[in-house]
Amino acid sequence: MEHLLKGKFGKIVFSSYSKNPLKYGSKANFKRGVSSVWGGRAVDRSRPLLKSQYQQQRRDYGIFVVRALRSVLKIRYLLLGGAVGGSVTLQRKYQDWKDGLPDLKWLEDVLPDNDKWQQFRTSLIQLRDNVKDNIEVDPRLKEVTQNKYREFKDWFDQRLDDAIAVAEKSNSQISYGDTKNEVINNSVVHARTFLQKDESTRKESQAHLDSLHDEVIQTQIRYQRELERLEKENKELRKQNLLLKQGRKPSSRQVKRSLIDMYSDVLDELADYDTTTYSTADQLPRVVVVGDQSSGKTSVLEMIAQARIFPRGAGEMMTRAPVKVTLSEGPYHVAQFRDSSREFDLTKELDLADLRREVELRMRNSVRGGKTVSSDVISMTVKGPGIQRMVLVDLPGIISTVTTDMASDTREAIKVMTQAYMNNPNAIILCIQDGSVDAERSNVTDLVSQCDPSGKRTIFVLTKVDMAEENLTDPNRIRKILQGKLFPMKALGYFAVVTGRGRRDDSIQTIREYEENFFRNSKLFKEGRVMTAQVTTRNLSLAVADCFWKMVKETVEQQADAFKATRFNLETEWKNTFPRLREQDRDELFERARTEILDEVVNLSQVSPKKWEDCLLDRIWERVSDHVFENIYLPAAQSESQGSFNTTVDIKLRQWAERALPSKSVESGWETLQTEFRHFLEKASKSPDHDTIFDQLKEAVVTEAMQKHLWEDKALDVLRVIQLNTLEDRTVTDKKDWDSATRFLESSIKDKLKNTENLLHHMLGPSARERWMYWQYLTEEQTRRNAVKVELDKILNSNQSHPPVLSYDELTTIRKNIQHSNIDVDSEFIREVWYPVYRTHFLKKAQQRINDCRRSYFLYHQGEETECSDVILFHRIQQMLKVTSNALRQQIMNREARRLDKEIKEVLDDYSQDNEKKEKLLTGRRVTLAEDLKRVRQIQEKLEDFIQALNKEK
């Protein structure tokens, strides 16, 4: 029957039976019911048959009897025919019943099968695990809202657990879609509530993310600039390589630079130059664009440059730093920043958008320390057909009120910056006034009249004249402004311009056509109130360029003469102060210092292997000697027998070699390397030709490199294996090694005995001889200690093999004995004196035993027992020191010296790019004088080149 049950209904029946067999009764009843269904009969047999059905049964029965009588001798045909007929009838009845069933395909879309339920359950479990393990919150947010975060996380985990439990109950009344929607909706509601409660914290996190985003953008810009520079250099190198392959020499001819570009370079050189004899206020001419905020000054500059190159905003401050724009004529309309090699095609809207974005980003990066405006100049060049040659500086607009999003000193900072540029006696002031507002509301005209009261270098520009006419402004009032009769300020010329229709997407050509049409149809012309030469930005740019070059020609030679005099004075001071030294600026001095430092690193290779090993051995023993005596030798030597001595020594040596000894050895190696390197630096500083100007820089470089240096990690593992193997070897191979170990033990004990006696002398005070000859006296505490020492000496004299600890009876006896002298002490005081007294006694006994051990090698070699186990111990330590110093010497010469050299080079490379470091570490009049000379010579040379080109153009 199973192969016949292919319908969906059959699948549902069996699935239901497998899950709830009690619903259908016994298995036999279930099969009987199914067979009756598939046989085409009614399931309920208690119902009476219809008449047609009854007649059909009788007819079939008669036919069956006739066929049986006729075929009584052919039973096999009867059986075969019955089987075939029955199967055909059953198949036909099954097909009729199946066709009569309703289409149940929609159940597949509504009721997921078991596999889908299992997948959904698995997904929910994985989601719970990921949420529990991977939810990360900003640490600062955790600190502020830790309780709320934990509450939200617990709630979310509980909701997920509930959802998983619902998914496991596939036959429950809650459907998959309802559970999913409920979980999502509740999660969204709780998440929204949580975020609303912590809005302030979220804002702080967002501000932090914004600052990080700005840093990433700035890094990308630096990367892009470096990439452009490298691509340019690579292109030039490929070109030269191609010429060399063709047997031709690369051309050394320099590209002829335009006059305005040469002049712009001079201005850039002068931008940061300021001395007691030359002020930045006396710099060469440039056009300074000033005006109230949103008066249209940036739009005027864009009309002159014939491109919309500045970011724009609706009523907000966009210009936050001075922007120096060098305009020059060229075949292509392009823009380029002074410190970048990328050219922006101003005929393409995509490049224009990138340029505006770059300008805005540079302005934002120049503002630091919570300020709103910056004095850092952004320099760019714009070239194109028909552009007038000049240099303009766009300044932040003058404001009347400081808003809440600005620094409190913004208004004053803009005013001071604007006055500094306008006070330059060679600056041309382009004063921008908004014509659509009342003239009495202007702030800029009073500042201009204060800086240039005579008006000999001021050009007045009235913008937004079209809006003024639309607002029914009195034409006579505009005429008075353009005739200089309304404002108290004076000017060389007065101009009226229209810089747009208030649409941000309008091109320069569209604005220019609109401007020309406006003035052609304006009442100002028809009624003869304004002269034709006083309108349009085209006439304005021609007038500004003419005034600019006129002032340049009048002042440039005076500036060149001033720099000649300054150069002469500086050169005279150098000859008188440093007659035998060559002028070197900070960059040149830094390169000299770099060479000297790297030469000293090379000198490390000249140290002999024996010197390295001797220095390393002494340094290692200096660091580990206290541990050897206090934690290994003395505890073992105070034991009762030679067997316990050897056992204690083996255990302590192995523990020491596995834990502290390798790291102590590496520290000793690093200290030895530093000592030797500094020794070379000190030796070089004492040479006759040493230049002290580099000392501060060398010390800073070496110190930073050594702080960065880390010994290789694998050195510890190598040393641990070597030291463990060496310390396990107890064999003294010959008399020479025995004598060496004896001397090593003797010198070590002598040093410890000397230190102990010094400590004891300090505790007991001056001796009788010192008190008699030098008039020294004992303190009360020293008197008590001397009394205790007398009693302790008696105990040690009576028992030379006394254990290292005093018994209770001995402590009591000492206290009672000194009480007869009216001295009262406690047990702790007695133990404090006992420690150096017993150690002195023990070390003196060890010295006496060493004399016997000198002659005991023969007995040791024969295998007889001796009391010289301490000699064997120090032989093992001595051999360990030798192999360790040898291994460290190899590591220093093969690896660490080169790694130190690399780290010093990295520090030097970082310092070479850090001008602040150079100024801090290379100081003195010699450096500043050389820097001033270099700067003045550069400015003078560029001025002379510019004057020469200017005279040729005349």
Rg calculated over all Cα atoms:
51 Å
Q: Any idea what the shape is? A: elongated
Q: Tell me about the largest β-sheet.
A: 9 strands, mixed
Mean pLDDT: 77
Helix vs. strand class: mainly alpha
Helical coverage, percent range: 55-70%
Description:
This protein is mainly α. Among the domains are: 259-562, P-loop containing nucleotide triphosphate hydrolases (Rossmann fold, 3-Layer(aba) Sandwich), CATH 3.40.50.300; 598-912, no CATH class. The chain has 34 helices and nine strands. The longest helix has 47 residues, at 199-245. The termini are far apart. Residues 213-247, 890-953 form a coiled coil. Keywords: Apoptosis, Coiled coil, Disulfide bond, GTP-binding, Hydrolase, Lipid-binding, Membrane, Mitochondrion, Mitochondrion inner membrane, Nucleotide-binding, Transit peptide, Transmembrane, Transmembrane helix. This is Dynamin-like GTPase OPA1, mitochondrial.
Which features characterize this protein?
9-stranded mixed sheet; 5% strand; Rossmann fold; single chain; mainly alpha; disordered N terminus; 954 residues; 9 strands
Outline the secondary-structure elements.
Layout: H1 8-19, H2 27-38, H3 51-70, H4 75-100, H5 106-110, H6 114-134, H7 139-168, H8 176-197, H9 199-245, H10 259-271, E1 287-291, H11 297-305, E2 323-329, E3 334-337, E4 344-345, H12 349-366, E5 378-384, E6 390-394, H13 410-422, E7 428-434, H14 444-451, E8 458-463, H15 465-470, H16 475-482, E9 493-496, H17 508-521, H18 523-526, H19 537-577, H20 586-602, H21 609-637, H22 642-658, H23 661-685, H24 695-708, H25 714-727, H26 735-764, H27 768-774, H28 780-798, H29 808-819, H30 827-853, H31 857-861, H32 869-912, H33 915-921, H34 925-953
Helix pairs in contact: 6-7, 7-8, 10-34, 19-34, 20-32, 21-22, 21-23, 21-32, 22-25, 23-25, 23-32, 24-32, 25-32, 26-30, 26-32, 28-29, 28-30
